[in-house]
């Protein structure tokens, strides 16, 4: 809520302009509370959003922090297209000496690079772009540009979560499936004792539901689960490995259940999970998935290392 480039801002929820003075902001908050209160016929979900918006901008110091970025530009990972496949580490974690998952590739790298390219084109040649992550600028960009940034942020957040799984896991990010189509990629491949999983990181900027093994919702375009399964099968054939299942990860606020297992799609078990519950799912596996251990774990990792190319 509020931290996605695709979602409404705190100011949108309160019905004011971002540069409104503090007194007008306070009046707008009280009005929106009355309008959305469930006891007066308002929407309970909107009532909660109004309260959350006020928590973010009601205090001058909090409002200043929110205006500086509220998530869009924080902890931005560096991206160097010619850097090969470096070992990735989340920013701000240099003091953490705990063993972490082995991680390769650049999470969100392709989409963040594409976002910067399209943002510069949209702003226009000759225009100085001091901060491409400025919230006021991001909110006014076309949805297809904001979607790129939202997905990049989602992939980076998932990378931080799976990095904490520990040294028994290996993760590949931004894995190319078809060299002719840069957008045809797997966001993450995770290998550990519970199995080998293809993971999709998504942020549609709105709640989603599931029906017949697929994600649906006003903001959902195409068939994300079907595409994920098809790409996992392509990597499976190329590397001669078997995936244990596929997992779609979304922001916690956008899923109805923390974990929802959808059964099998084209032979692969499928689960949809909120981001905070992803590590638990990867540690225990999903129903119908196959554990991998011993020499097989080493063999699968070797095959993937020899096959994986990055977007």
TrEMBL record:
Residues 150-258 form the NERD domain. InterPro entries: Diphthamide-biosynth_chaperone, DnaJ_domain, J_dom_sf, NERD. Residues 9-70 form the J domain. SMART domains: DnaJ. It comes from the Bacteria. Signal peptide: none annotated. Residues 70-106 are annotated as: Disordered. Gene3D superfamilies: DnaJ domain. PANTHER family: DNAJ DOMAIN (PROKARYOTIC HEAT SHOCK PROTEIN)-RELATED, J DOMAIN-CONTAINING PROTEIN. This is DnaJ-like protein. It comes from Microbacterium telephonicum.
């Amino acid at each position: 809520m509020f931290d996605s480039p695709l979602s409404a801002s705190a100011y949108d929820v309160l019905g004011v302009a971002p540069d409104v003075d503090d007194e007008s902001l306070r009046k707008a908050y009280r009005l929106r509370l009355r309008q959305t209160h469930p006891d007066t016929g308002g929407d309970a979900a909107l009532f909660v959003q109004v309260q959350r918006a006020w928590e973010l901008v009601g205090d001058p110091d909090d409002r200043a922090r929110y205006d500086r970025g509220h998530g869009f530009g924080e902890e931005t990972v560096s991206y160097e297209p010619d850097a090969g496949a470096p070992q990735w580490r989340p920013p701000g974690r240099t003091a953490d000496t705990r063993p972490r998952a082995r991680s390769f590739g650049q999470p969100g790298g392709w989409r963040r690079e594409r976002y910067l390219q399209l943002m510069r084109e949209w702003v226009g040649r000759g225009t100085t772009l001091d901060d491409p992550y400025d919230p006021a600028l991001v909110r006014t960009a076309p949805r297809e540009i904001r979607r790129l940034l939202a997905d990049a942020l989602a992939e980076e957040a998932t990378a931080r979560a799976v990095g904490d799984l520990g040294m028994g896991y290996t993760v590949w990010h931004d894995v190319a499936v078809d060299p002719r189509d840069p957008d045809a990629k797997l966001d993450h491949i995770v290998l550990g004792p519970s199995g080998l999983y293809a993971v999709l990181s998504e942020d549609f900027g709105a709640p989603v539901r599931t029906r017949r093994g697929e994600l649906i919702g006003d903001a959902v375009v195409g068939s994300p689960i079907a595409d994920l399964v098809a790409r996992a099968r392509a990597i499976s054939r190329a590397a001669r490995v078997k995936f244990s299942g596929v997992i779609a990860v979304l922001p916690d606020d956008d899923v109805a259940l923390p974990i929802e297992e959808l059964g099998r799609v084209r032979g692969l078990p499928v689960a949809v999970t909120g981001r905070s519950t992803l590590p638990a799912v990867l540690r225990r596996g999903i129903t119908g998935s196959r554990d991998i251990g011993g020499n097989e774990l080493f063999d699968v990792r070797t095959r993937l290392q020899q096959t994986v190319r990055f977007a």
